[in-house]
């Protein structure tokens, strides 16, 4: 455990040390206010669940932030390390085996006991999914089994020093056996967390009640409603008017009005998110590295950050943020229109069709970002059209390679609180989230070496090397490094912002008595 603490503390310590700008210093305190335990609150979230609540999908994030789903371990951003959650301790039984001791006295919300058998069954269900979770797949985990009444053993096909990190992924959340008895996963009444889902309006909201038998202590709220509001401006408006108590992922365009609004606090944290123009490396003309470099040279990232993001983001220097300990020494590219035109000529590019940018609507600012990019590329003779789409509707075509470019942003540490998950899923030849359709054997070898490297320092050097390959190949256009920005009413107590966007409703979350 001490060794794990040292490994993880070097991970996000540099990132989370900067967490907590804004009015509340990263959270709110109940020191001077009295909580009203009969109150319910409304949370505006920026995405809706998909795939019938399957834990291997992004639906797991909804269940986690809603206070329903819990995992064996938990990444504590404040401490910068993996800490116990449904498991109280863990140890490496052999180079390929990790043993997790299950917490005593925990009951699922349906009244059944949390056991090693039920944990193993839940994790095995995720492992056997048709499309496994990026953090927990058969390529990473060979088997999960209960070795006795209190111990779950996770076996890996090769030595993997980051297994405890992987068990903190929300996709490895534990549900009761009854959740798996139907044709689809049913989390209602089958979680272990402080809040129990009781009803949903498809693609609109999830209603939750207090779990009166929560193992982690008294739950301060009577319940909550999590609303799925993809429009960022709407999320900002609702927290300002009081229609919502907490709004997540506030767009930069709304910050000035919210920061001056009465009864509203704005929380900001450095986050491992980079707004990115993903390019389809498997389709012409993007399969030519000179063409991709030409687009990079055409962009004025400084102007983009200053205008669209109103100074709330910084120009990106590659796939990592400078504050991350594995970032290397890259600097943000400077606009060079003449160089861009020369690279286009070298690529043999002819403007035979407009290239399409998909701007996902969940990020309100992307419409303006796309317009800025459109103007920059027009200046070098590359015509661009823009299409606004919800990410869920765009993803199938993007994953299949049926697209040109898409504006999106990815939390590099959301799958696992270490960049190995992001670097593997997003850029290896067989990566399950390789939107760029990029494949480079040298890159894959670096990532494979990093995955089996136990030394944190050495692993981070390999991550930096991987980032250098991605940058040299201009795989994508990394635009700006973003902050995580949430807004909440002043009546909300004990809210601690999570820059990794996994935890919102906790047993301690409360509202003040009126």
How does this structure look, described?
By secondary structure, this protein is α+β, with helices and mostly antiparallel strands. Helix content is 27%, strand content 23%. It contains 14 helices and 20 strands. The strands form four sheets. Strands 1, 2, 9, 10, 11, 12, 13, 14, 15, 16, 17 and 18 form a twelve-stranded mixed beta sheet that branches. A four-stranded antiparallel beta sheet has the order 5-6-8-7, covered by helices on one side. α7 runs antiparallel to α9 (337-347) and α13 runs antiparallel to α14 (456-472). The protein starts with a helix and ends with a strand.
Structural class designation: alpha+beta
Please count the helical segments. Answer: 14
Range of helix content: 25-40%
Provide the residue-averaged pLDDT. 90
Describe the global form.
globular
For the biggest sheet, the summary is: 12 strands, mixed
Low-confidence sequence ranges: 1-26
What is the first-to-last residue Cα distance?
44 Å
Alpha-carbon Rg, integer: 23 Å
Short description:
The protein has 514 residues and is α+β, with helices and mostly antiparallel strands. Helix content is 27%, strand content 23%.
Structural key phrases:
514 residues; 12-stranded mixed β-sheet; 23% strand; alpha+beta; 14 helices; 4-stranded antiparallel β-sheet
């Amino acid at each position: 455990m001490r060794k794990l603490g040292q490994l993880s503390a070097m991970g996000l310590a540099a990132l989370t040390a900067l967490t907590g700008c804004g009015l509340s210093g990263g959270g709110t305190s109940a020191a001077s206010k009295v909580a009203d335990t009969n109150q319910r609150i409304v949370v505006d979230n920026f995405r809706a669940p998909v795939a019938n609540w399957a834990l291997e999908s992004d639906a797991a994030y909804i269940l986690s932030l809603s206070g329903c789903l819990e995992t064996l371990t938990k990444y504590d951003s404040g401490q910068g390390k993996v800490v116990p959650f449904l498991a109280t301790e863990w140890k490496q039984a052999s180079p390929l085996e990790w043993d997790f001791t299950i917490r005593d006295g925990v009951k699922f919300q349906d009244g059944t006991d949390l056991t090693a058998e039920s944990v193993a069954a839940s994790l095995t269900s995720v492992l056997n999914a048709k499309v496994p979770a990026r953090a927990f797949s058969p390529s990473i985990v060979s088997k999960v089994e209960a070795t006795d009444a209190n111990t779950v053993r996770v076996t890996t096909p090769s030595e993997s020093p980051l297994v405890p990190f992987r068990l903190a992924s929300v996709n490895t959340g534990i549900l009761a056996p009854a959740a798996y008895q139907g044709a689809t996963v049913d989390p209602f009444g089958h979680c272990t967390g402080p809040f129990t889902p009781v009803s949903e309006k498809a693609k609109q909201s999830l209603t939750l009640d207090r779990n009166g038998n929560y193992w982690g202590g008294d739950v301060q709220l009577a319940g909550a409603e999590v609303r799925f509001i993809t429009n960022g401006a709407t999320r900002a408006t609702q927290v300002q008017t009081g229609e919502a108590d907490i709004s997540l992922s506030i767009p930069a365009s709304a910050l000035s009005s919210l920061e001056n609004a009465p009864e509203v606090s704005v929380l900001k944290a450095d986050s491992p998110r980079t707004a990115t123009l993903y390019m389809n490396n498997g389709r012409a003309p993007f399969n030519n590295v000179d063409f991709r470099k030409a687009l990079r040279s055409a962009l004025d990232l400084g102007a983009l950050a200053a205008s669209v993001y109103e100074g709330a983001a910084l120009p990106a220097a590659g796939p990592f943020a400078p504050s991350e300990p594995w970032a290397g020494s890259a600097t943000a590219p400077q606009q060079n229109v003449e160089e861009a035109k020369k690279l286009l000529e070298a690529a043999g590019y002819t403007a035979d069709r407009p290239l399409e940018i998909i701007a996902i609507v969940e990020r309100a600012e992307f419409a303006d970002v796309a317009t800025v990019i459109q103007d920059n590329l027009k200046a070098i003779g590359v015509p661009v059209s823009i299409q606004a789409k919800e990410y869920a509707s765009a993803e199938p075509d993007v994953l299949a390679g049926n697209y040109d470019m898409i504006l999106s942003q990815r939390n590099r540490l959301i799958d696992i609180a270490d960049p190995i998950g992001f670097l593997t899923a997003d850029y290896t030849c067989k990566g399950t989230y390789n939107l760029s359709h990029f494949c480079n054997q040298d890159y894959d070898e670096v990532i494979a070496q990093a995955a089996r490297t136990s030394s944190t320092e050495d692993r981070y050097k390999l991550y930096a090397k991987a980032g250098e390959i991605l940058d040299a190949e201009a795989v994508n256009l990394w635009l700006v490094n973003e902050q995580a920005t949430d807004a909440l009413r002043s009546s909300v107590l004990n809210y601690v912002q999570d820059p990794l966007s996994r935890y919102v409703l906790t047993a301690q979350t409360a509202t003040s008595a009126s």
